[in-house]
Amino acid sequence: MIRAYKFLMRPTVGQTQALAEMLRDHCSLYNGALQERRDAYQHASKTSVKYGMQSAQLKEIRAFDPERQGRWSFSSQQATLRRLDKAFAAFFRRVKSGETPGYPRFRGVNWFDTVDFPKDGDGCRWDSTPHDPVTRVRFQGIGHVKVNRHRAVVGKVKTVSVKREGRKWFVVLTAEQSRPEPLPATRAVVGIDMGIANFLADSGGEFVPNPRHARKAAAKLQAAQRALARFPRVHRDKRTGNHQRAVQRVADLHRKVRRQRLDHAHKTALTLVREHDFIAHEDLKIRNMVKAPAPKPDPDPDQPGTFPRNGAAAKAGLNKSINDAGWGVFLTILRAKAESAGREVIAVDPRNTSRRCPACGHTAKENRPTQERFHCRSCGHTAHADTVGATNVLRAGLVRRDARKG
């Protein structure tokens, strides 16, 4: 199995400048390759330029511009061209499937924050000084950079990436490992129901509160964004120091919320994996859930060009709460931790899970008179609606598991 590690780097002032130049030059290579593909399609009878053709030009590019392109790793530049090729592959895949395509765009210097090295030892070397008590990673054109390795790297390092987040630099590793020993069996099973009022409820009646990190930081973020908006357009073009600090303040607040959300997701998922052998959850289509309602024109012919209320404002608030909860991030982390621990995770159809009575099986909209209360109209069973949903999710998950084994 493949596991990723992310460590904070502590470059010197000169190394920080060199890392920024590496990102800038790879960004220039990415944009140049994108421009070549656009020109070939528009002006050469819709000719398609492939990755192999652009990769073959790298030697000439490096020889023509040795100061900006020739100083960096050849394999990392190939990885940048592959990134562009993947962007075009995803674009054509979305076109064929009828989704919103999203043509690949040019990247600004501040929007190109990662350089990949496909193989450890080719342009980079992890733990380049093994006899030094301080861990270092070496990059071609930069040198040996100190790394704050807060945990051991298990397995053989396969790929290395440099990532910039604000004013900090990170190294991201992928290591190939043998499958770890599974955790001891607990013989416990659980179903979970994701929500807004509570982050999740399980079939045992327990609840995990929703931390609402973005809502807690909303006041500070609003003040920072207002301070940023005070700069006139002419000052933004000059990129004054105050403007850059205002931009950095907004970005730092967003990053803090993201880190808090990830920390909460990791801790919640780890608790579930340690205490249960089997976990069932709803197969949520989060992308569809956060879509804005489409405007519908007024059917009255006497009022052309008008649109009645469609609940878009209320839906925007719900979408914001769903994104703040971070269900997708949590479920991804849960599946990864379960795989490492030898646990089983199954997703089930979420339809009617909170409307079906777990006692008699009666399903009706009226069974849930309020957001939290469940009251069966057939047998009179009462419980918390989220607990009922988690119980039904668990039962459906066990049925799917038994069907697989059968």
Global structural class: alpha+beta
CA radius of gyration = 26 Å
Strand tally, please? 14
Mean pLDDT: 91
Strand content: 15-25%
Rough shape?
A: globular
Q: Are there runs of 5+ residues with pLDDT below 50, and where? A: none
- Terminal Cα span: 27 Å
Spatial sequence of strands, sheet with the most strands: 2-6-7-1-5-4-3
In short:
The chain has 406 residues and is an alpha+beta fold. Helices cover 44% and strands 18% of the residues. The chain has helices spanning 13-43, 51-55, 58-64, 74-97, 213-216, 218-229, 233-238, 241-275, 286-289, 312-325, 327-341, 385-405, and strands at 2-10, 114-117, 124-126, 136-139, 143-148, 156-165, 168-176, 189-194, 198-202, 207-209, 278-282, 344-348, 373-375, 382-384.
Description:
This protein has two domains: 140 residues, no CATH class; 217 residues, no CATH class. It is globular. 23% of the residues are buried. The strands form three sheets. A seven-stranded antiparallel beta sheet has the order 2-6-7-1-5-4-3. The chain has a five-stranded mixed beta sheet with strand order 10-9-8-11-12. A two-stranded antiparallel ribbon has the order 13-14. With 406 residues, the protein is of the alpha+beta class. The protein has twelve helices and 14 strands.
Keywords:
globular, single chain, alpha+beta, 7-stranded antiparallel β-sheet, 406 residues, 2 domains
How is the secondary structure organized here?
Elements: E1 2-10, H1 13-43, H2 51-55, H3 58-64, H4 74-97, E2 114-117, E3 124-126, E4 136-139, E5 143-148, E6 156-165, E7 168-176, E8 189-194, E9 198-202, E10 207-209, H5 213-216, H6 218-229, H7 233-238, H8 241-275, E11 278-282, H9 286-289, H10 312-325, H11 327-341, E12 344-348, E13 373-375, E14 382-384, H12 385-405
Parallel strand pairs: 8-11, 11-12
Antiparallel strand pairs: 1-5, 1-7, 2-6, 3-4, 4-5, 6-7, 8-9, 9-10, 13-14
Helix pairs in contact: 1-4, 6-8, 8-11
